[in-house]
Design a protein that fits this description.
Largest sheet: 4 strands, mixed
Number of strands: 11
Distance between the termini: 38 Å
Shape: globular
Radius of gyration: 26 Å
């Protein structure tokens, strides 16, 4: 994000939830602004305990709603076989880190729209709760955050949360890649054209247009006297513009290997360890022989089961190695260690397992291990594609 080591808060279904240091800047600013707002609503000083407590609760609940939005993306990705390594909250919201890109327009659409659907559900629940409890007029005043509305602090908080989530929903659905609306646009363009790279270029160019619009809008706000709002909007525009530009540049590179599949460059004779052999055999016949830090593990039908790592095998006491099987030490595959051998090669560029292990396992349609593809092989394919048609000079 903006640098520095993220702070891990907790895990949800194995997904690490972390915050960037920039998140604390936004948390402080929100608490400062909301303390003043709740003080005016309640007719108290912004430093009084009740306005401050409401400001802290509102800020934390807002970030909880952002986290739920990102978990919507994450769970949709997991249901479609895309691993999620972490969710990170930062100065401009949150980001779910996916292990790879979507492999089809429908998957891209489902993952992109899942977050906004969660935010929509939050808005509906908060609004329904408010309308049922206090009626339309009082809740409307709460939602419009009118400091002279006369509503209680609690309902002012519920109204503010409904309003801010509605704004997040509308903002996220703008067709500005890489925001959710831009990813929906990419999914639709991909479905229409059948070409992911051209769809990404189209969505990225649209994102850059919106980025410039936000920057221009920010400058106008600054000129009109709203320095804080103007700087914030301009920064968002700069982030969107930079991300869209990076996506467009990456597409220019990946487009050169779009005609290659994993099977075109993989090693078709991978060395794999049968899951039923002992740890002692694995150490003697594989790890000591090849000196590799890990091996793919297969069953009797050569179906890929997962990976066995040398460190795990070394941890087994020598007296127990003959009775322990390799299958007992597996890092079970949840879909992140493998890729279909007919998948496009450019789908591996965002694969985190490829960066972690330096390779991923290629499997056929039945899940049988058919090859291994390394980061070096992917890099070589990119370098070859980047050479001029007549060869390097």
């Amino acid at each position: 994000m903006l640098g520095g080591r993220p702070i891990t808060l907790f895990h949800v279904r194995g997904i690490r939830i972390a915050v960037d240091w920039s998140w604390f800047i936004v948390l402080f600013l929100m608490i400062f602004w909301l303390s003043d707002f709740y003080g005016r609503v309640l007719g108290e000083s912004s430093s009084a305990s009740t306005p401050f407590a409401l400001a802290v609760a509102s800020s934390l609940l807002f970030f909880a709603s952002v986290l739920l939005h990102e978990l919507g993306h994450a769970f949709a990705a997991l249901r479609n076989g895309i691993g999620i390594s972490s969710i990170q909250l930062w100065i401009f919201g949150g980001m779910a880190r996916m292990d790879r890109e979507s492999d089809s327009p429908s998957t891209e659409f489902k993952v992109a729209i899942a977050g906004p659907l969660v935010t929509l559900a939050i808005v509906v629940v908060l609004t329904g709760f408010g309308l049922a409890a206090v009626g339309w007029e009082e809740f409307r005043r709460s939602a419009l955050v009118e400091s002279s509305s006369g509503v209680s602090g609690f309902w002012a908080m519920i109204g503010w949360l409904a309003t801010i989530n509605l704004l997040v929903l509308v903002f996220n659905l703008l067709p500005a890649f890489p925001m959710d609306g831009g990813r929906v646009v990419r999914a639709i363009a991909w479905w229409k054209t059948g070409d992911r790279n051209s769809a990404t270029r189209f969505a990225a160019n649209l994102g850059r247009v919106f980025g410039y619009i936000f920057i221009g809008g920010g400058l106008l706000l600054i000129a009109s006297g709203d320095a804080f709002g103007g700087i914030w909007l301009a920064l968002i525009g700069m982030v969107i513009n930079g991300s869209a530009r990076a996506a467009s540049m990456q597409t220019a590179v990946t487009g050169k290997i779009s005609n290659l599949s994993v099977a075109d460059v993989m090693d078709r004779e991978p060395v794999a360890i049968p899951g039923e052999i002992s740890v002692e055999q694995a150490l003697d016949e594989y790890f000591l022989r090849y000196r590799w830090p890990w091996f793919p593990v297969v069953d009797a039908a050569y179906k890929f089961l997962g990976l066995v790592v040398r460190d795990k095998a070394d941890e087994v006491p020598e007296t127990s190695r003959a009775s322990f099987h390799v299958s007992d030490l597996l890092e079970r595959d949840d879909g992140t260690f493998q890729v279909r051998d007919d998948a496009p090669l450019d789908s591996l560029l965002a694969n985190r397992a490829l960066r972690r292990f330096g390779a991923v396992m290629a499997v056929d349609i039945d899940g049988r291990l058919s090859g291994v593809i390394t980061a070096e092989q992917v890099g070589r394919a990119l370098r070859d594609a980047a050479k001029p048609a007549g060869g390097a000079r």
